[in-house]
């Protein structure tokens, strides 16, 4: 994995993410990506909820390549692909032992606490650029 321009989070999945305690459920890989995005904020002493709103998924495209099992250490890499006035797109890849097992492209939209799409202010854009 070429980690240039990617943010890396290591994750050891909990027992309840697995089918019969052995194989990871496919949909939980999407949860791991969400967790990695949140951990990126938490590692900087912040939360993904900003002063005037928060981010929601607008579009998700996922490719499932291989499975993982209990005890596997996973690495989630996140890269900012595009940023627009009220949204940004990330690519997230999950690796197990240096082999890509999952890839996600997600469009995140910034909304206010009433659920209305809002433009990102310059400070919020700079924050996103610094995190991803």
Using only C-alpha atoms, the radius of gyration works out to: 15 Å
Residues in helix, %: 10-25%
Secondary-structure element order, N to C: EEEHEEEEH
Structural classification? alpha+beta
Classify the beta-strand content into a percent band: 35-45%
Largest sheet: 5 strands, antiparallel
Lateral strand order in the biggest sheet: 1-5-6-7-4
How confident overall, as mean pLDDT? Answer: 85
- Give the total of beta strands: 7
Spatial shape: elongated
- Rounded to the nearest angstrom, the distance between the terminal CA atoms is 16 Å
Model description:
With 132 residues, the chain is α+β, with helices and mostly antiparallel strands. It has 2 helices and 7 strands; from the N terminus they run βββαββββα. A hairpin with a 2-residue loop joins β6 and β7 (99-112). The longest helix is centred in the first third of the chain and has 17 residues, at 26-42.
Q: Any descriptors?
A:
single chain; 132 residues; alpha+beta; 5-stranded antiparallel β-sheet; two-stranded antiparallel sheet; 2 helices; 7 strands
Gist?
The protein has helices at residues 26-42, 122-131, and strands spanning 7-11, 18-19, 23-24, 53-64, 74-83, 87-96, 99-112. It has 132 residues and is of the alpha+beta class.
């Amino acid at each position: 994995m070429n980690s240039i321009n990617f943010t890396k989070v290591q994750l050891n999945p909990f027992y309840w993410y697995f089918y019969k305690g052995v194989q990871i459920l496919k949909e939980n890989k999407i949860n791991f990506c969400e967790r990695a995005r949140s951990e990126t904020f938490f590692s900087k002493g912040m939360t993904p909820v900003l002063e005037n709103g928060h981010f929601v998924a607008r579009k998700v495209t996922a490719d499932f390549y291989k499975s993982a099992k209990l005890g596997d250490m996973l690495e989630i890499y996140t890269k900012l692909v595009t940023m627009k006035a009220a949204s940004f797109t990330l690519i997230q890849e999950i690796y197990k032992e240096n082999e890509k097992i999952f890839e996600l492209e997600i469009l995140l939209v910034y909304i206010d606490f009433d659920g209305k799409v809002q433009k990102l202010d310059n400070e919020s854009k700079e924050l996103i650029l610094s995190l991803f």
